[in-house]
Amino acid sequence: MDISILEKIGKSSHKIFFWFNLEDNQFLYLNRAVEEIWKGSLEGYLNKPELLMEMVHPDDAPLLLNKYERLLQGHACNFEFRLYFPDSFDKKVRLDAYPIMDEGDQVTAISGMVEDITLQTQYLDYLIEFTRKKNTALEIVSHDLRGPLAIVRSIADSLEKDHQEQVYDEITNYTRFIKQACESCVNLISDVLNEEHLKSHTINVNFDRVEIVQKVREVIEPYASSESISQTFEVIAPSRAFAIIDIVKFDQIMNNLIANSIKFTKPDGKITITIKDEANHVLVAHHDDGVGIPEKDQPYIFDRFTKAAREGLSGEKSVGIGLSIVKNLVDIQGGQIWFESKEGKGTTFFISLQK
């Protein structure tokens, strides 16, 4: 068999080209690219072809043997598998192999090409993750801006009403709440869509040592003062407690929990946030005496686009991502979150934060 064309292609290629003779189980041709991809020496693989199988990842070896059987049956194969290097990282390669038949349609040799696709695979994985992160960022922004903007709308309604009645006693508070809500919106957008976030597939966390009791009171105050929100709020906490948190992400957590409680708590209900300064952590317990979470939905409550999503008591729509955002934001700050709930009795979310 004339393999001169294969030799000319393989001489300067970074891909492996081969011709394997089945009669004597030897390579009739194998180029030096095998030294770059498989490591080892060309001469060693020519003398002992079985050494190539020793570098195949154990989990992928059955696949390779299955494809080899199909080649012996006369079927061309195109597939990917991994190479295992104990002292380095795995490689991923793509093999295109073709059976060579004699005049009697018997497979006498296998020829083909092997390409290192490790970098291509890593880049594709990066693009997939990056796209997922961008989509998640947009979901977070569109979801979490609703709370602050709802507060601004409520205050605007109050301002309009007070102006009509020529009552201006609360203007200072109104403007302060509007400023806080706007700052919250701007901080959220900056945090989620900052340049570093878009360039990286990891989430950037900016830790600060924060006095968390005052922070919680600042988050609650606009809700408690809004005329459109009738539920009452209470904070039970020591005078001070410090936690290591990302301030913007903690704002998101609290706003999501408050908005969730408002949706599922009757107008005369109560939302209570209890803060405990423990030895190794700060525990934040967010409780409402609302309708609670049905037992059948509880295993899925933190799922993204959860099937546990349901309308609020006033018909508010839910896309089912709020609590998944909360869990993700707690996790990336090194905290823990869990909940207790009973239908008709309310729900408590517990958040443990680093000190």
What is the succession of H and E elements?
A: HEEHHHHEEEHHHHEHEEHEEHEE
Residue stretches low in confidence (pLDDT < 50, at least 5 long) are 195-201
Question: Structural class, judged by helices and strands?
Answer: alpha+beta
End-to-end Cα distance, whole Å, is: 74 Å
Provide the fold topology:
Blueprint: H1 4-11, E1 16-21, E2 26-30, H2 33-37, H3 42-47, H4 51-54, H5 61-72, E3 77-83, E4 91-101, E5 107-116, H6 118-144, H7 146-164, H8 171-192, H9 195-199, E6 208-211, H10 212-225, E7 232-236, E8 242-245, H11 247-263, E9 270-277, E10 281-288, H12 322-332, E11 336-342, E12 346-354
Parallel strand pairs: 7-9
Antiparallel strand pairs: 1-2, 1-5, 3-4, 4-5, 6-8, 9-10, 10-12, 11-12
Helix pairs in contact: 6-8, 7-8, 8-11, 10-11, 11-12
Give an overview of the whole structure.
With 355 residues, the chain is an alpha+beta fold. Helix content is 42%, strand content 24%. The chain has twelve helices and twelve strands. The chain has a five-stranded antiparallel sheet, sandwiched between helices. Strand 3 (77-83) and strand 4 (91-101) form a beta hairpin. Helix 8 packs across helix 11. The chain is elongated. The termini are far apart. The relative contact order is 0.08. Residues 195-201 have low confidence and may be disordered.
Features:
single chain; 355 residues; alpha+beta; five-stranded antiparallel sheet; five-stranded mixed sheet; 24% strand
Compact overview of the structure:
The chain has 355 residues and is of the alpha+beta class. The chain is 42% helix and 24% strand.
